[in-house]
Request: fold
Amino acid sequence: MKIQWLLASRYLKGRMQRSVLTTLAIVLGVAILFGMNSLLPPVIESFRHSMYTSAGTVDITISSASNSSFDQSVLDEVKSSDGISYASGYLSKEVVLPASLGGSTNSTSGVSSITLTGVDVASAQSTHVYSLESGRFLESGDTYTALITQSLATALNLKVGDALVIPSSKGTASLTLVGILINTSPDAATQVLVPLTTAQEILNLPGQINTIDIILSASADKTTVESALAQKLGGAFKVGAVETGDELLTMMGMAQNIMLFFGVAALAMAGFIIFNTFRTLVAERKRDMGMLRAIGATKRTLMGMILTESVLQGLIGTALGILLGGLFAAGLLKAMASFIGEYVHVSISGLTFTASNFIMSILLGVGFTVASAYFPARSAMKVTPMEALRPTLTAPEQHKYAVRAWLGLGLCAAGVICLTLKNQYVLSVGLLAFLIGLVLITPALVKPVAVAFSWIYSVVFKRESLLARENLIRQPGRAAITASAMMIGLALCVAMLGMITSLFSGFLGYLDKSLGSDYILLPTSLVLGGGNLGADPSLAQEVRSVDGVGAVTTLRQATSQIDGASIQVIGIDPATYPQVAGLEFTQGDPNEAYAALASGRALIVNGLYASTYKVRPGDQVTLKTSNGDQTYLVVGAGMDYLNAKIATAYISQANLSTDFNTNNDLLILIDRAAGADATAVMTSLQKLANAYPAFTLYDITTFKASQENLFSVAISAMYIFVLMLAIPGLIAMANTMSINVIERTREIGMLRAVGSTRPQVQRMIVEESLLLSTLGTLTGIAVGLFLSDFIVQAMGGIFKLEFYFPTLGVIAAIVVGLSFGILAALAPARKAARTIIVEALRYE
Amino acid sequence: MSIIEVKDLSKEYGQGTAAVTALKDVTINIEKGQFVAVMGPSGCGKSTLLHLIGGLDRPSSGSVAIDGKDISKMDDNTLTEMRRRQMGFIFQFYNLLPVLSAEENAALPLILDGVKPDTARARAREWLERNQMGERLTHKPDQLSGGQQQRVAISRALVSDPIIILADEPTGNLDSRASDEIATVLRNIVNKWGHTVLMVTHDPRIAAYADRIIFLKDGQIVDDTLLDGGKAENALRLKEKVERL
Reply:
C-alpha cells in the first residue's frame, strides 16, 4: 500500500495543473451537496419550530386529528375516564408579531412571533408547573391579563403592569402583564399565557380548545388509558400535540431534494472528468507501468496505484468542497435570512454541520471519484511488461463507432417519439432513451462536426484548421467524453433557463388571475398558515361597507390530513371568489366546481396535490375534521398564486366553519366599484387596516410589482446557479486540452522545428478546443431542448405551464460553450507555444 | 546445470499468411557468471529472445528454464514474483519513474516485494554508491544525465540480488563515453559480484565487453563465439563479423 500512496502523491504533485482541474470538479459537486445540506435543514427546522406547538411534560396530550380546535365539552368526556388524575384544556396558537407591535426577525435578540396560550385558570396548574419570577399567576375573574416569560419580557422590554399589545381577530388586543415566568424550555420562551376565554375571543374561537393535557393517577397504565380514550373520542382525535405546517415542510423537503439532485448532477459531471483524466493518465503511463510489471509489480499493484490516486484526489477535493460548501451556505443564509424574515416572519437559526452531512459528503465525493477511476484502473491491469519497451505514442483509436451510432440514433428517435406522445408515464423512459442514445452517437459525431465547423472556423484559423481537425478526429472517444461533460452542463443550463422563462411567465399569469382584485389586505406572513391570526368576519363586513368598494372576497385557512398526508384547507366563498379572483383550473369545469362547493361537501385540489396523489375530479377523499372523518367529492384541480407550492384543497367557508371551526379571514381581496375614486377608496380602506396591524393593505399594482421584483431577484440568483452548472464543462475542456498538449509534446516540437510559429501553435490548440466545445454545445442544446419540453410536461400536472422555446437558454449555451472553448485552451495553448524544441524532440 | 536453458524456442507474431517468425528453434545454455551479448541486424529476433528469457512475453513453442525452473509454463503471478526476485532488467530508455528520486527508483523491486522501506532504501543506497551515484540519491530523473539515469536503472536491477541481469540495448540512448561507462559497470557486475548478464546490443564496441557473443539472423543462431582477445581487438572482429552477416 505504501508504494501506491507514495506514487499517487508524487504523480498528483507532478501534474499539478491537471490535478487541480480534476479536483475542482469534485470540489464543486461536494460544495453544492454539503452547502445545501448545511443550509436547508436549519431553515426547515426554523419553520418547524415556529409552527409546532409543543406538548408539556404531561402523561398524555390529546388534540384533534385535523389539528383544528374542538368544543370544550370534550374535556368533560376526558375527565370522566378511568385512570385520569388531572386534565386541563387549553387553546394555543402561534401568532406573528408585526413590526408595528414590536416584532423583529433578528434571530439573536428579536421576537418574530408569540405562542398565545389560553388556559383554564382553575385547572392549569394541576397539569403544569408555572414558576414565577415576579408578579402573580392568572386568577379567576381575570380577562385581558397575561403572563410572559423572562426572555420575552427582555426582548419586548416589558415588566409587570405594562401592556402587551398583540394582533387579534378584532384588530389588536391589549393585555396587562400580571406576572413574569421563569424560562423552563426554549420551546416555551415565546409563550403568552392568558385566560382561556380571552384567548377564545382573540382567536375568534368561542367555546373552543385545541389541546387537553392529562396527568394519570399513580396506578393507571398509560397504554390502557390511551386505548380507552381513543375508543371513547373516536378517530377525530389523536394522542399527541398540535402540529401545523407539515404541508409547508413537505414542500421544503422537496426543495431539499431538488438541491440534492443538483449536487449529484455536478458530481456526475465530475465523474466524467475524472474518468477522462484517469483514462488518459493510464495511457500516458503505459511505459512506467510496463516497467513496473517488468520488475515485478503485480497487476493488482498497478490497479491499486490508480485507485489510490483517485482516493487521494477524492479526499482532497472533498475536503476543499466541504470548506467551500460551508462558506457558500453561510453567504446564502445571510441573503435568505433577511428575505424570509421580511416576507414570512420566521427567524432562521444558524447553519447546522451534522456528522451525517460530513459523512455523506465524504462518501459521495470520494465514492464518485473512485467509481469513475475504477474502469481506467482496471485497464491498467492489462498493461503488459512489453509496454516498457515501446515508445510512448498515443495511437489513434481503432474503435468502430458505427454500430453504436446507429443504436444511439434509434434510441434518440424513440425518445423524441415518447416526448411527442404527451404521456407522463413514457416521458421518463423517453428522456433516458434520448440521453443514452446521444452518448452513443457522440463519438460518431466527432468527425462530421469537426469537418463541418473547421470549414467555418478556417475563416479565422486559416493554416491551423487541418491539424486541429485531425487531432480531434484521431481521438473520438476522448473527445466524446469531454463533450459529454460539457453537454450535461449546457443541457441543464438550456433546460433550466427554459423552465425559468416558463415559470416566470406562468406565475405572472397566476398572479394576474389569483389576485385579480384592485386591493388586497395581506397578512404578515405570505404563508397563510404561518402564524397569521386573521380577522373575524366583521373586518370584511366593514370593508364591504366602505364607499366605492365593489365585490369583496376572503380566504380562510385550516389544516387537515387525507390518508395520512398533510394538506392545507383553504375556505373560499364560491359565489364571490370567482368574481374577484379565481383559480387557474387544470382539471374540471370552473363553474360546475364552484357550484358544487356551494351545495355540499366538495373540494378543489391544487395541482401539486392532484399530481402527487393522482387525484382527479370524481374521486372521493376523506378529510380529518373536528367532526371526525368527512368524505368530500373532488370536483376540480386548480391553484392560486399564494398556495401553489403547498398541497392545498379549497372548500366552501361554510364547510370550513362546520368541519374545522374556522371563521377568521386571513386574506381579503377587494374590488373597487366602477367609477369610484381610487384615492378615496384607498384612504378609507387604509383607515380600517390601521386598526388591524396583522394586515397590510396593498394597491394590487404595487403588490404585483413587488412580487415581480421578488421574482426577478430570485431568478437572477437562479441564473447564477445555472451558470455554475456549466463550470464542470469548462473544467473538462481545460483538462482535456492540457492532456492533449502534454501527449503531443514531441509532435509540437516537430511542428516548431519545421517552421510553425508560436502563435500558429496556439491557434491550433484553440481551434481544436473550439471544435470540441462546438460538439459539446450542439449536443447540449439538443438535450436541453428535450429536457425543457420534458420538464414542462412533467410539471403540467402541478402547474399549468406553457412551453416557451428557450431562446435565451440556447443563446446562453452557445455563448458559454464557445467562450469556454476558448478559455479552456488559453493555458494549454500558451504552454504549447512555449515548448523548447530540442527538449520536445527528446521527450519520451 | 546452466543458469539459463533455452530449448527449441520459437516465437511467431500474427496468424496465417500474415504470420511473422521472430525466433525459430533457438537453443542456448548460459552458465552462471557469464557475460553474454546477443547481436544481429534489425529484426533478427535478439530483443524477442531477451523478452522470452525475461518472461516478458510467452513463446509460441519451446521452453525457457531459469535456474532449473521452466518459466514458459508459469502463471502470471509466479512469473511476476520471479521477475521481482530473481531477475534484473535494464532498458534502453532507463524507464525510471519520473516522480521518484534515484534512491526510491533503485529501491522499487524491494518495496514491491514488501521489504520495509528503510531496509529497501538502505540496500538501494549501497548499490547506488557502488555505481558512483552516492551523491545523487535525492535527484529526480530529470535532474540526471542519461548515463546517470542508466546507473540508477542498473542499481535497481541489482538491488534484489537477482540470478540474472537482462539488458536491452542499455547504451542505445547514450553517447560513446557514457556507453563505455555503462558497459564497464556491467562488466564489473560480472567480475566483482559474479552475476550473470545477458545483453542485447547492436554496438560491437559494447559487445566487446562481453565474454561470449551470440549472433542471430532471421530468428536463428548463426554464430556463438567466446571472446578471448582485448576489447579493441574483439570490437574490430565483431564489427567485421556483423558486416559479413
